[in-house]
Amino acid sequence: MSDPSEEQEDIIDVDDGDLVFIQQHHELVLNNNWWLPAYLSISIFALIANFLFLFTVALNRKSTNLKTFTTATTLVIATLDILDISRILPVLFKRFFENNTYRQVYCSLGVFHELAVALLLISISVAVAVQISRDTQYTNNTRTSVAHKVIIPVVLLVAAGAAGPFFLMSFDRLSHSCTDPLRIADLVQSPKVPEYWYSSAVAAVTHIIPILIIPISLTVACFKSCFLGLCCKNRFKQHIGELILAIAICSIYLGTLIWVVLPGIFQLLNYDQLGFQFVPLLWELVNNAARPICYFFFNPAVWTGLKAMCCRNQKKHRFQSDEDEETELALSPVTTV
Predict the structure, then answer these.
(1) From 200's CA, which of 13, 211, 236, 328 has a CA 20 to 30 Å away?
(2) Do the domain assignments include residue 147?
(3) What's 148's domain CATH number?
(4) Is 333 exposed, middle or buried (0-12, 13-18, 19+ CB in 10 A)?
(5) What is the pTM for the complete model shown?
(6) Structural domain boundaries, residue 252
(7) At a CB cut-off of 8 Å and minimum separation 6, what does 83 contact?
(8) What is the count of structural domains for the chain?
């Protein structure tokens, strides 16, 4: 139960003299005993896992199998996930939660992250379907290099341009990105029509387009791989791994989209007795933590790079021991006459 004093803090005065209602801090940062430990544990794990993924790829950057569009795209997503965790963590403190400047930065960066990740995942799903070839090794394809240099910067610029106006808006509610696809139901009664229209449009793009494109692209990629018999060819092991990787991270993303929207749908249908809670931050962090696990387990080149990185110290130590033995033999006295 919340205190009456907390309920009064829901009303803030804006510049035009109107009073708007904002959510309480415990609506976003739940008071449940399990929420804070889960929040911090997932955040720490996500930071470590994403940094480890970036470090692994950086150390093995000369590997041919890592020079693919999927690996380059996942590198960008991992960097965005690290920035996203840094954006979300301050919301634990109520002072940041109530600061209007922080709310604008929080929401604009959240929109940028959500748009960029959605568009990059769509690009990955399309790429694994397009880059299948029976005779050529797709990792050495020149079009892959062009995709690195063109598609990824364009996606980031589009996401940044779409998120820019959010910095000038005021937000009465915070979520993982401050966009809500169900907010369109409030447009008729709300005086903030431009803000709600813009927020609803962005949420529709990040929810509807991935749901329409990703399943079709991955289904085509699976059927094409099976038809060409790529599963039986060792030289296409990297492609099959990246296809499984795309299926894994896209399935997690689409699943969390559904669970973020589901409580609002049940509210509109008056099914609140089912007990679904709004925990969008937790679902966002689950995505940030689950993606690096998929990078390591389903991308053969990344897994090989991780094993090589772990064994490198042992090989170095063994090499130094061999050098020490040779030095000792060279410096040993000659006993023969």
Answers:
(1) 13
(2) yes
(3) 1.20.1070.10
(4) exposed
(5) 0.80
(6) 35-307
(7) 109, 113
(8) 1
